[in-house]
Design goal:
With about 475 residues, the protein is α/β, with parallel strands linked by helices. About 35% of the residues lie in helices and about 15% in strands. Strand 5, helix 6 and strand 6 form a beta-alpha-beta unit. The longest helix is centred in the C-terminal third of the chain and has 33 residues, at about 435-465.
Length: about 475
């Protein structure tokens, strides 16, 4: 299903990233595929593809760049509304479609991509690496992957599931050092790790405006997870609004109830707000939409550990990381130890504005010092080098010899066998030119709708009832 893009939602500053049109090309277009499994990973993958092909003339030998979007069918496949809120990522909506894992592999086999960006959870990346290897293509695409934000849990697990890609992007110097240490520690090649930055940083630096005082709380779907902790954060945010009636207090939400993002949200703040005693004050409001547009009018960004904090720091917006629920690995706020940003609602109520530590900032890839323009140079050069090379077969660290009790289960979730080939009965590409193919696709769409309804709406209700 192709997304509808919002004209008002602008992508980060990519003036240098505009690729020449096909009419300008000096040869066949450089074909790029982005495979994503959620709205945030779509944003990361699409903008990463644009960053990597930004200098189209030298990077692509004078060719045009043609980027296709493929959305992996599953629980968190983004809706058209979510895709629209991501904003314009510079990809023609007509070149975006929804696929299964096997259909994606067929597309790579049949459509001749030069570069593939895997914007997936770790298990999805591993499955696609083995699936691509099993294709045995005489000329395979360059494969790039990475993380959509702060890596605060499952570091070794996630990294080893991504091992085997030609380029594993790190969003900062800090991450690059950690990634190499993990690979080298298990005896895996760390040469694919390449330092870059989050591709969606951008926007004008913060400038206070007379008469404007806006506090934004960036909510997260799964952090914290419990009803009690989420209700606590909401209550403190509302109390802050009542204590400071001159301030506009905004709860920035990722999705509407029933929609899934990268992480499952079973207790939406919208629903909790409806049950809050005393209602909501007039200076408090909920906000959806493009994070960059919200940050345009933000004077203080508050969160537990959202990647929005890095976007905010990039723009030099005062930023606070809450310690009210503790500094815990499960919350992800331990990533900000040493940042100078850790604080509590009590201190924020009293007027404290945290000041970031310059040394910590320098290692986090937020590039508030103006170096962001060159953040992708190293990765772009690496991709250019690989595009002009004879690529060896893909060789992930996990294989039937190193992980015989782990790998088959990962591959089976994507209908792939232990050898990376589609299992018998795996969904095949539809044949739109035949009636049987059309009927099959209609049935598949109906089943997909029922599956999403069950996962996104029915299952959370049943789990909540079980907690009563």
């Amino acid at each position: 299903m192709p997304p509808r893009t919002s004209p008002a939602a602008s992508a980060p500053d990519l003036e240098t990233a505009s690729a020449p049109t096909a009419s300008d090309a000096a040869g066949p277009a450089l074909k790029v595929a982005v495979l994503a499994d959620s709205d945030t990973r779509w944003k990361w993958g699409a903008l990463t593809a644009r960053r990597l092909t930004a200098a189209a003339e030298p990077a692509a030998g004078g060719r045009a760049v043609e980027i296709s979007g493929l959305l992996l069918r599953g629980r968190a496949t983004p809706t058209p509304r979510q895709l629209a809120e991501v904003g314009d990522v510079g990809i023609d909506p007509s070149r975006v479609r929804e696929v299964t894992a096997v259909e994606f592999l067929h597309a790579v086999r049949d459509e001749g991509y030069d570069l593939v960006v895997l914007a997936l959870v770790g298990g999805g990346v591993q499955a696609m690496l083995h699936g691509l290897a099993a294709l045995g293509l005489p000329r395979r695409p360059v494969v790039v992957t990475g993380y959509v934000g702060v890596v605060y849990e499952k570091l070794a697990d996630g990294l080893l599931l991504r091992h085997g890609a030609d380029v594993v992007l790190a969003n900062s110097r800090h991450d690059a050092e950690r990634f190499r240490a993990v690979y080298e520690g298990v005896g895996a090649d760390a040469g694919a790790v390449t330092e870059a930055a989050l591709p969606f940083l951008g926007g004008a630096p913060h400038r206070p405006e007379e008469g404007r005082d806006t506090v934004v709380f960036a909510a997260q779907p799964s952090v914290p997870a419990s009803r009690a902790e989420r209700t606590y954060l909401l209550r403190r945010l509302v109390e802050h609004a009542r204590l400071h009636p001159h301030r506009e207090v905004v709860l920035k939400l990722r999705s509407k109830p029933g929609e899934h993002t990268t992480h499952v949200e079973e207790l939406p703040y919208q629903r909790l707000a409806e049950r809050l005693p005393g209602g909501l004050p007039p200076n408090f409001r909920l906000a959806y939409g493009h994070m960059g547009e919200v940050l345009d009018r933000t004077d203080l960004l508050v969160t537990v550990s959202s990647t929005a904090a890095l976007e905010s720091l990039h723009r030099s917006i005062p930023t606070a990381i809450l310690t009210d629920l503790g500094v815990r690995e499960t919350l992800g706020n331990h990533h900000f130890v040493g940042s100078g940003l850790l604080t509590s609602w009590d201190r924020l109520d009293g007027g404290l504005a945290p000041v970031p530590d310059p040394g910590w900032l320098a290692g986090q890839g937020v590039a508030a010092d103006g170096t962001y323009a060159t953040a992708y140079d190293r990765a772009r050069d690496r991709v250019t080098e690989l595009l002009g090379s004879a690529l060896p077969p893909l060789a992930p660290f996990y294989d039937p010899a190193t992980a015989p009790g782990y790998l088959p289960g990962i591959l089976a979730r994507h209908h792939l066998g232990p050898d990376g080939r589609p299992l018998p009965g795996a969904p095949a590409a539809a044949d739109p030119g035949r009636i049987r193919g059309a009927v099959r696709e209609t049935v598949r769409n109906a089943a997909r709708g029922a599956y999403r309804h069950g996962v996104q709406r029915v299952a959370p209700v049943i789990r909540r009832m079980g907690e009563l």
